[in-house]
């Protein structure tokens, strides 16, 4: 059953009268996406500082935002990628989530504003995400970060990027990642799972929207089967960092996220999967009015703290 608190959030979104993403221009979709995030009721945690930077890459400048918790450090670092189907979103989309993680897990969060499609199609977002993660390892000490304790994470499309960066880091043997946090990730395009059939036209992420995102992100259908686009299709997942895969009961992406967690486990990767009942895609953004959202954030924070600080306790 759909959580009654989530039902109220979805009703409010419906009452706003905005058109479906796939029926408007990219510019209009981005505006609506940004405004919808401003309307979410979220718990706002405090951090010591929030700093916007721009890093130089072979692809141009990549904006990042660094969230630093209270204390002297060095702190572990979570490199985080926002959602939005590779077409929408920016650093503001997950601002409060990043603050929540930085505050609760006592880690620095580096949020990455990767290039968006259709102006920059696949693999532009992947290139930016991986470069930014490498930059974090090389420059961690300049912002109180610990280069030996780096994790990647993201929600939805950002979860895809976190999974892909983990694959690239394993292949290239750098950076040495400690963890991957995959929040309702998109890990395979064009997959007809049961959750897509059951949930694909009912809630705040639809199959039609996902097709619209894919049409803008990819230049052709062949790119969808690339493991850097659909990590679920990677032949070998051995040697990847431990993972937490979060899914939502009424999310079309639920099944593929759970299948990715199962495949990771089959290759010997330490993984925990957690499906939150009654929840929908993007529910991490509802912490101010949905109890399960706050519970999920707190449980994720606990997982991050355990990963980041267990070695220090053991030593």
Structure in words:
The protein is of the alpha/beta class. The chain has one domain (4-314): Rossmann fold, CATH 3.40.50.1820. It contains nine helices and eight strands. It has an eight-stranded mixed sheet, sandwiched between helices. The radius of gyration is 18 Å and the shape is globular. The mean pLDDT is 94. InterPro entries: AB_hydrolase_3, AB_hydrolase_fold, GDXG_lipolytic_enzyme, Lipase_GDXG_HIS_AS. GO terms for molecular function: hydrolase activity. Belongs to the 'GDXG' lipolytic enzyme family.
Index terms:
single chain, 315 residues, alpha/beta, Rossmann fold, 39% helix, 18% strand, globular, hydrolase, AB_hydrolase_fold, GDXG_lipolytic_enzyme, hydrolase activity, Acetylhydrolase
Q: What is the CATH superfamily? A: Alpha/Beta hydrolase fold, catalytic domain
- The helix/strand order is HHEEEHEHEHEHHEHEH
CATH classification, class level: Alpha Beta
Q: Please name the CATH architecture.
A: 3-Layer(aba) Sandwich
Task: Report the helical percentage.
Answer: 25-40%
Average pLDDT across residues?
94
Structural class: alpha/beta
Large-scale geometry: globular
Task: Tell me the number of helical segments per DSSP (H or I, 4 or more residues long).
Answer: 9
How far the N terminus sits from the C terminus, by CA atoms, comes to: 45 Å
Beta fraction of the residues? 15-25%
Number of domain modules = 1
**CATH fold description:** Rossmann fold
> What are the low-pLDDT stretches, counting only 5+ consecutive residues below 50?
none
Please give the number of β-strands.
8
Strand order of the largest sheet: 1-2-4-3-5-6-7-8
- Using only C-alpha atoms, the radius of gyration works out to 18 Å
Major β-sheet profile: 8 strands, mixed
């Amino acid at each position: 059953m759909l959580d009654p608190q989530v039902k109220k959030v979805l009703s409010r979104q419906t009452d706003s009268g905005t058109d479906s993403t796939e029926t408007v221009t990219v510019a209009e979709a981005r505006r609506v996406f940004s405004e919808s995030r401003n309307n979410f009721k979220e718990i706002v945690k405090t951090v010591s500082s929030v700093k916007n930077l721009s890093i130089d890459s072979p692809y141009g400048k990549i904006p990042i935002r660094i969230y630093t918790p209270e204390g002297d450090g060095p702190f572990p670092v979570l490199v985080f990628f926002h959602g939005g189907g590779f077409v929408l979103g920016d650093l503001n989309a997950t601002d409060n989530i990043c603050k929540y993680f930085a505050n609760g897990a006592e880690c620095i969060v580096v949020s990455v504003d990767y290039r968006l499609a259709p102006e920059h199609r696949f693999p532009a977002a992947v290139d930016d995400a991986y470069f930014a993660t490498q930059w974090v390892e090389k420059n961690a000490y300049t912002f109180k970060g610990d280069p030996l304790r780096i994790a990647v994470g993201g929600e939805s499309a950002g979860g895809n990027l976190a999974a892909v960066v983990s694959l690239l880091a394993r292949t290239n043997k750098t950076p040495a990642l400690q963890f991957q946090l995959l929040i309702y990730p998109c890990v395979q395009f064009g997959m007809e799972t049961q959750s897509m059939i059951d949930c694909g036209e009912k809630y705040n992420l639809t199959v039609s929207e996902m097709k619209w995102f894919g049409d803008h992100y990819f230049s052709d259908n062949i790119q969808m089967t690339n493991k850097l686009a659909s990590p679920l299709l990677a032949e070998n997942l051995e040697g990847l960092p431990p993972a937490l895969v979060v899914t939502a009961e009424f999310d079309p992406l639920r099944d593929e996220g759970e299948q990715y967690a199962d495949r990771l486990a089959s290759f010997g990767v330490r993984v925990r999967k957690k499906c939150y009942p009654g929840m929908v895609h993007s529910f991490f953004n509802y912490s101010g009015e949905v109890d399960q959202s706050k519970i999920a954030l707190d449980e994720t924070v606990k997982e991050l703290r355990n990963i980041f600080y267990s070695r220090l306790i053991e030593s």
